[in-house]
């Protein structure tokens, strides 16, 4: 790390809120501006709250629909799994979901996708169904159908709306429709999609013509999967968007770039959260916090960018290029995969910085300020390096897979 990477905050900028912004170091000023606050103390408090939301906010997605609509395959797709993978939701031609079943996202433990029982039973009552599946658990509902939406689907949507939550209609198994239609003379993909969409919307007039998303759980790059993501982002509260963006599978180059930008914006919050701990005079506490933040942050990047083994296997099989895994061998990817990321901070230079942090934090005033400055700069440096490394690796893999263009 070069010397410019380690910047020390002046005591005045840390300890005296009344000091002018021009008296603060560039790193401090940038951090304050990035978080929209007037002082470093306020920015640090906001950073801690923002970073805590980023890593801990929960998101519960309910997936429902009648038997055979493809609920379980959709749940698996959201989790980056194939139907036959260990831990995948069970699929089949008969109803395999008899009770609400929660599936944790493999890379985001605070994101849960719920496979709800089918709603096509003779005794179906929307209000009773929502009570039975514990309605209040979920942030929103995805209602799946592999053909037309039924009266039960509509009744359920109306009841969800009454109770002030969101629902989204997803027409699944579009790949099956396309496969069948391709055999016909004069096949026109866009015309077929328009016919399917219009047919689905015929039964939904009473709901104000809600949008219908056409998807294939086996080919997320196609059809409306990205459009569904964008719509959910627009509708969710800001803190819930963090969870959605981290957990949602990479379904296009634009989707990947959106994830990258989110992590880049969050570097300020993670770095300042680290700086707040550096002023506590406990041996090893600041260094441990730095490492913990770096590991957590970059591991989230690793899964969000689709660099884990399962995501790469799914992608390589889809494009029939087994060698894609061999491209995921950058220093950060390798360290995360081997659970050895902590070693990236074990160089002599960084070890020395950790020691200096502790010694400076024992000094009143200026010592605490200097310790905070060093912690901020080290963490920021490592996070920027890591995000860039992982992002570029993901871009290279998509390009090699023939999926590089932003659309």
From TrEMBL:
Keywords: GTP-binding, Hydrolase, Nucleotide-binding. SUPFAM superfamilies: P-loop containing nucleoside triphosphate hydrolases. InterPro entries: G_IRG_dom (IPR030385), Immunity-related_GTPase-like (IPR007743), IRG (IPR051515), P-loop_NTPase (IPR027417). GO terms for molecular function: GTP binding; hydrolase activity. It comes from the Eukaryota. The keyword Nucleotide-binding applies. GO terms for cellular component: membrane. Residues 57-235 form the IRG-type G domain. Belongs to the TRAFAC class dynamin-like GTPase superfamily. IRG family. This is IRG-type G domain-containing protein. It comes from Onychostoma macrolepis.
